Amino acid sequence: MPAVAIADLVATDPGDFTPERTRQVLMQSRVWPGYYDFAASWFEDDAHIDDLLRRQVGPPADWLRRLPAAAAAIVDQVLEQRRGRWAERLLWTVLWAHASQGRTPVAWQDFLIIAQAIEQGMPLVQIPLMQTIAERSVQSAARRAQLR
User: Fold this and answer.
1) What whole-number distance in Å separates Cα of residue 60 and Cα of residue 75?
2) Residue ranges making up the domain that contains 90
3) Residues 54 and 84 sit within 8 Å (Cβ to Cβ)
4) Number of domains in the chain
5) How many CA atoms lie within 13 A of 106 on its CB side?
6) For residue 38, is it within any domain?
7) How many other CB atoms are there within 10 angstroms of residue 44's CB atom?
8) d(CA 90, CA 111)
9) What tens digit of pLDDT does each residue of 65-89 get?
């Protein structure tokens, strides 16, 4: 999405992008994957995750017991490398929510706040949504490991 389009969206409702509102949205974003269907699939799930967790955390039996360490490894070594993908995913969600004209559980402005934070280089450890995505990635990997 071109920067001009983002600026145009922000200009439509500048009061929704205050520092206080940004802090609120960042904190609220932590629960989106657990409460809203649109974010249920927001996690990383591939062999790279499994390999990383084995190297950094230990055997699969330890992954959930050491969830903070496992999630930190995912944020640092997976999500940071995939930052652009997550920003793009959030920007597409902005467009979906904007086109839905208020029929979404989360306002398009909220998605844009998170997308901008990711795009502008805010450390992902400071974005609660990304922490939840990392935790859900560990949980998915642990479930998959149990099935083997």
Assistant:
1) 18
2) 3-33+43-147
3) no
4) 1
5) 25
6) no
7) 20
8) 6
9) 999 999 999 999 999 999 999 999 9
